[in-house]
## 1
Amino acid sequence: MSKQFQFKLVLLGESAVGKSSLVLRFVKDQFDDYRESTIGAAFLTQTVTLEDQTTVKFEIWDTAGQERYKSLAPMYYRNANCAVVVYDITQSTSLEKAKSWIRELQRQADPNIVIALCGNKLDLAARRQVSEEEAKKYAEEEGLMWGETSAKTGEGVSDIFTSIAKKLPLTAPPSARGGARAGPARTGVDLNKQAVAGQGQGEQCNC
Amino acid sequence: MSDAFDIAQEITRPTEDVKVAIDARSVPRIADEAEKETWSGSDHEPTVPRRKILAVVSHVHADGKHEHGCVFVFTHKPPLVHTIPEDYVVEHAFPIIHGFSISMSQPRQTTIDLSSPPAGSTFTLNQPRTELTVTIDPGEDTPFSPITLQTHDIQGLRRLLDECKRLKEGFATETADDYGFEPFGWVAPYMADHALPPLLSSIPPDLRKLKKPVHTRLSTASAGMPGDDISDVEIIREEWMRRKVEDELFARGEKAGLKIRVGTFNVNGKFPSQDLSAWVRGDVARPPAAFIPPLKELSPLSLGEGQKNPIEETLAAEDPGNGQPPDATSSETRSLSTVSDATTYVNLSVDTQSAETAVSDAPPDVPEDPSDPDMLVLGFQELDLSTEALLYSTKTAREQAWCMAAFAGLGEKAVLYEKLASKQLVGMLLVIIVKKRLRHNFSEIRAVSVGVGIMGIMGNKGATAVRLLFTPTPSPSAANAEPQTRPTALTFVNAHLAAFDEMYEKRNADFQELSKRLVFEPAISVEDQQPPSNGSWYSPAAAPLSIFESDALFWLGDLNYRLTLPDADVRSLVADDQLREVNIRTLRRFDQLASARRTKKAFEDFVEQPITHLPSYRFSAGVLADGMGYDMKRKPAWTDRILHMASKAVTVKQRSYASHATITMSDHRPVSAEFDVEVSVVGLDEYEAFVHRVWRDVSAIEYIEERPRVRVEPTNVDFAKISYKREVTRTIAVVNIGKVPCSFRFVPQGPTADTCPPWLRIHPITGLVLPGEKVDVTLTTQVDEALASRLNVGQAHLEETLVLHTALGRDHFVAVSAEYERTCFATSMSWLVRLPGPVRELQSPDDVLPEDRSVNAPREIMRLVNWLMSNATETDGLFLTPGDEELIRQIRENLDTGGEFDFGAAEKESKVALAFGDTLLQLLDSLSEPVIPPALHPRCAQMTSRDEAFELLDDLPVVNVNVWISLTAFLHFLGQQEACKGRVEQLVAIFTPVLFRDDLTSPTPVSIIGRRNFLRYFIG
């Protein structure tokens, strides 16, 4: 019997690192060379099916990276089960910005939040400013998942979301009805127990 | 050429019936004489026979028994330039009485006019061969002379003669004792002397007419195509005189106040068994309880609708007091009087006597408080539910019992009051109680009742009405002396309209029917009739009066309008005392009466103060009730209402509007409203002199040969920038440089155009300017939501030419221009996301981005939410307290220009935060389509879980989803802040009507509770 779980995922990161492109690739498997900056946030959903036929539905909150909408972030990451913090491997300043988002999440968000650090624009590796080692080391220190992606080619995109799905606490108690908190959509005991939050953190995902 | 019958029907009042109407014309030889009589002083003496209409018109008296006829001769107005062809006035009116006779004959010369057909007359086209001569002899007892006319309509004439014969025979069977009214009083309004200035009539103009802007009553005209200047002059002049009287006479003079307390109570056939003081006195000292059980046990026999209690009935017949303390009212019973059903008028001199006696016998040493009403107007419905009450004349026992209960409710103050008049029809009773010392300030009391119930005539539904004159300072000497100051006509209607939720249209029809049929027949005594003389034979006192021919009209009663929301919604909304205010506001939008007024189906010109009290219906003892005491079988509703309308001659200020929960004896709660009515104290002599003086200058302007000449300056008005909700005013002067008074009006450029562009308001749009004087006309730009939504997507440069037409003169042109500043308000979200930048930078509507390149959400909404997240999450009262208008304007400007919000040091002040909150609500509310499109409301209301609710978002446009998600995330965040603890429900209640704005044209609204639940899934 397949189980469906529903989780709230928020994307954070500096402006123009490719958050919306990453979501577009993940949700519609498309890429758009020209994209307007996100205003506030965009909301999309996508379902991932794991090997054991468990399905995980992501409610994705793709936030604006622009400074002018920075104040909105807390209302989007509040109650998020997982966060993808994106940086651009060709811009070292974007990793600094990612680090500051991670600090904010660790301070303000749900303590059980699953955070993945994601280096995007792998297709531009020739202009790389952030080395794999540097980012990976930081992720290990902070206990985060880490991976590199290219929204343009699609490389690593579905892997990072699938890895997050696997790391999510699929035994989480049923969500309180009516609340904005996400959780398993259907109640019942999950016999195929997956890794609970906190376990396996710092592992590199399969990309 | 219009049909004679249609014209006759157009000219006569709706209370009359045109039986036959035929074309006729004056006999050339004697026509000159006839014309001179009517149109003396006119230079435009006709040289050709004028078209006339001969008609038999009948009027059935309100008693339904007496029909009286009158032969009317309508004649064409003097043939002046531009006069429209179908413009007729009453020339003669001959009552069909004993001495009246009408005969026809065939003259020898039948071809008299064929030899010289009048040029241009359409009448000659139908010139028949045979002309018949009609001679009307009004009879020796009348002041009128016989007249002779010609017609070719033999068939019509035969029918006309037959009709005259019938009506004359009908009249012959009557004697003067048959009726206590003037049989031909209804003719009076047609015979008003046209040479007299308007405004001198003692009949106030129809309030409905006054509520319509003057220019809508003028003839059709456009640039270069004047309409009927003559009739326009009359209307403009009358309006000008009325304004002059208001501004220069009434405004300056002394004022007199009249405090009127109006109450309505559907008593469900019960006898009074409780203290009515809360209703009649408005006792505020006593805290109102939500529900108090009846004071006495009700007999099981009295339970249920429509059942009468025989025990109560018997008791009441024996003791009309029925448990009321008799001491306070015993002296009053003598002065209680009833306007009997047989007559519609009561001469109250007998009452006056006894009242005076009562006063002199026991002078009241009860002090008056300024808060005591001068006048109590109480309307009861369902006084008697017995079936006999419908068939036989009503007993007065119930009326007496309720009057005594009302006086008892006045407590120690009762001795200050007396009953002035009352009118009952089956279960409906209207009682007027006044302060004794003001008794002589009221006169000419008339009453009427009309049934619109079973078969359209029975009195189970209908209305009773009383009209009276209030004279601020009557002659101190005698009660019957002529009032010295100008009286004010007050009319009160107590109505009971059709019941049940689904009878909405019937209620509207009842209102229309009552508006038409509630006519006060004249108050006369036949002996007092002045000897007939032409002109005064029909005095205005003898005219039947519409309820709208008043200075102020109050309409109260059980109007039976219901709420359209589902039953469970209504109960749940009224039950929540935490959200009482916002819930009542929500309920008001689903009130059938509000809808009838909005769609102009009923009560459109009336004013009703917004209701803040709980529904007054329905509480039945002994049946299943909800927690608030409302009967489970009937949806709670505001059935009991009090509305009013008034002319500018009086000022009506409503002081209260409340229901009284402590009075629980009926299935309705009584409702009351208190009004401060202010009238000008102007002597009749002074008033008439003023009107004559004003009239002297403007009376004959339409007949003066000299052309009016005006100068208009400037003729070019540039408003520069105009924007949403921001008025800019410019003034142009109309200077009379001629020798005669000039009346002017703005007219459209062409027959299908508007007089004035929608973004501009002209005031006044018609006017009159005396020689050497100047009138300032203000031009004000106004861009409301509806207009902004059109202008936003159009060209920014606006220009128009206004055409000012001077009656009988020429047209003047005023060029107006403006640059419209676009706004993000009053647009659609799908358009906002296609803006390449701030809306103000959009040069042309074609510059918007293609749909596939639109952004994910409107910047303007997100900027507001972002600011609120940064600065306002701790603000007390956010979204609950209205923001400062000037701050809101600044914020709006920043949104439109893309400028940074800069409030300097004030940024952290709560008034700025409140203004931002209000701006967000206003912006959302101004969207042409709400965030959740109305088509999805029914499904939203059915969602039973958060997951279902999220699924439904898939059916929304992407933009709407993004806005919805961000707004609800913000509200959710807000609800968890200290400042908003426990405020989630308030936020839900406030945002639901904005995010799910209703389509008010839908007859079955979607559950509000269901929509609130849907929103709660996201922010709770």
## 2
Amino acid sequence: MIALALLLAAAIEYSAPLKQFVGAVGKDGKPVLTQGQLHTLDGLPEHTRELLSTAIDNQIIGSAKHLGILLSVDMPAQSLALVAQDNCVLCHTDPGNVKARSLFSPDPKVSNSNPLLNLTEFVNDTHFRQGLSCSGCHGGTPKDESMANEIAQRWPSDPGLRHADRTWIPGFCARCHSDPAFMRGFSPAMPTDQLVKYQQSKHGTLLLGEHDSKAAQCVSCHGVHGIRGAKSRNSKVYAQRIPETCGTCHADAQYMAGYKNVNGDPLPTNQLAQYKLSVHGKALLEKGDLGAPACNGCHGNHGNNVAATAVAVASFSQACRTCHPTNASLFEASKHKKAFDEHQWPACEQCHGRHQIMKPTDALLANEPGALCFDCHAKYSKENLACGKTAAHFKGALTQLGEGKAELSGTVEHLAEAGLDVEPLTGVIGELSEAVVQTRTRVHSFDQGTFDSAATPGLETLARGRKLVADARAEHGFRRKGLLMAIGSLLLLASGLAFKIRGLGSRASDDEKRP
Amino acid sequence: MSRAFDWLDKRYGLTPLVDFLKHKEVPVGGHSMVWYYLGGTTLFFFASQVCTGLLLLLFYQPGEATAYESIRFITTKVPFGWLVRSLHCWSAHLMIVSLIVHMFSTFFLKAYRPPRELSWVTGFVLFMLALGFGFSGYLLPWNELAFFATSVGTDSMKAVPGIGDWLLQVLRGGTDVSAQTLYRFFALHVVALPLITVGLVGGHLLFIQRQGMAPAMGTHVARRGLRFFPDFLLRDLLLWLLCLILLATLAVSLPYGPGLPGVEWELGKKANPLAPAYPGIKPEWYFLWVYQLLKEFPPHILGMEGPQAAILLVSVMLGIWAAVPWLDRRAQRDESSTAFSDLGVAAILFVGYLTLKAWDIGGKGLKVPDTFAVARATSIITVIVAAAIFALRRFAYQHRFFLLSGAATLQIALHGFLRVSYLNAGIVSVLLIAAGFAYLRLRPGPSVPPRLGVAP
């Protein structure tokens, strides 16, 4: 093994400081650097190896073991080059130099160090990758060879102090993130209004106004040393991870104890469970549809609000409108709008629910017990018989369209297998699907005329589809009959031929008998 | 009628031809007559191809913007166009089936023995041409499946040593499959290949008419014969009628094929050269064994690229197959040669196993089936078939030479049951064959070469 290590060293032409560590042997007589680490070292650009060599020469990388730790982290050569030039990282990754509580380690569990000091996470941090390292937040410079007083003053060594009062965090991050000129140099498209929004949010008012350090601030959602961009799957704020990130606090009944809604009720902690069952939750978490809203889709990112006051009720419907504009417009122009306003009912939520929004079905439409409309209509609109008729009309047309579409879809595959041209029918099914969507949308007008403007063309399309199916079946029947007739004729001909051959066969036998 | 014949006879001298037909006989006895009709059924399916092909040509328009559309037009708007296309596709597959059975029956009856070597060679070339018809016709609908299958199929041309890249460019008319490829394949399919085929079919038939059909082994001249006209011809005609009934039934009942990979011709989507190829594309069933063999080879072997080695192996095997009349010395002397019968069985097991494996038999319909499960299931089927053939040969025909088919079965068993890689299993089998031949050559016995079997 040692010979192999030396052989490799000879092949690569290491500098003297590197050569010393490459050939280093532990107390057990085995080389300190593993084959994998040597392979990583060999694969580095020469420039990066030179930077490591300089750090060894300057005794910032203090041992072969320390070098091995750096080489064992899965990171691109560019990141290793940044690490090799950053004295803060180099000192805080050397187990011979710092205590476990301030040691950055590839696996903090193994080294018994602070879980937040994960070296693998740190080198993948979006800030680190853009050149903003320890000194960017903690002060000093990457070239400092010891902890300056300035750093100690800026960053109190007692973690208790930092944890007890977290009001400083939003302002601290905002030093860069609220500075458009500064941020343009890194991420020109990134907004810089997070602090303003946060200050107006419920979290912001709790933390900054009431000094409630349990309220979420930047690091609660984004993390500390392994912050990724929101589009990274590893980010805590990646679309599919947002529900769990919010749920860290909001699904924890113990943590949320004492927080109340504006009406004084305890703040529920079942939102995450409800969301996972909802049509939105299933679309995002199960189908992977990143367009489906997570918590932030309705509540916002940094300027989250709680839908409770009259003003918030209206804004809540606006959140739904972002994705469902036609439904919202139809509702705005409907008779229900006035009634809902009078009762101060939220528009969408009243029928569809809040966090557990289920996929609506046509069965909901009826003015009878168990149906969606019944509870309100029985109480507030008992004498209006037209409502029941309208609901029955809606349900009847939608049932016809839905069943018709299922019927045609089931038939088309069978006809295609029989070799019939199903392209026109496939087109009709596509039109019918669109008609079903349009007709269901127009339910939100609660007006028979508006509803029929979509339902009637849909029913006409259905009739056209049924005619195509009938024509295709007739063609199939014609083909089968034609085949049977052809087979019959051919069999008749074959039988005649067989008789003829039989006659010839006996004559051939006679010929054979002749001498 | 007779006056018309006299008129023609005076001008063209038809009497010798009529006399030839009157006296022409088909040998009877020694083996079943059914094998004599397979050439005729192949010819019938070829004639169906020509007729339906001509009808398709009335509407088909080659071209990137017209090929797919014209096929769509044929199958949806042209009266009975769907039927013509279905007949064309079905008769193509049935022709290949008939051809393969005809070729193997000729092989097992040793009908290739002198003086009929050229009948075998022309037949072999006709088989290659039929595969060429299949390959060139596959692209013509210009649909997604055809496009990607042709891309994969032509790509294997690169493996031809020395001229691979040049051959690929010639075949594709450029570096990629494009409209240029379509034009070339169209010209091949409807002009070049039919012309060569008609010429060779003519030669093949002429050889047979001049030499007559091969009598059974051990009889240079048949003891008795069946008159060719009208007795044999009417029987041929009856079989053709039955073939037509089968063809029509299949064409109407399953207009897009039986739905097996490599035996389907649903038009699907139009080819999009910019779209990514979807996984699981397979060539037509008669190319599946080559496709699977290519997959079994590693990227590099013996200083060659894997596909290159695989194509070389296929070429050597086909070369041996074509040269069988000259290699089978015992058949040349009209003696039993069960070693070559065994070679035929080994070929069936080798090709059959690879084809079944390419079909993912035992893969439970998964998109990415478990390769071990597939190898095992296909091995079980092939070993059972091998055992049945062994029993038939040993007890019905008293064959005693099973070295080649045994080695082929051993390879399949090692690969399927013990998970030995296909190539390593093949090496073990080749070593077994070498050891077997060495033993037969060196064992003490009479100075004359040992009889490898008993005549069937």
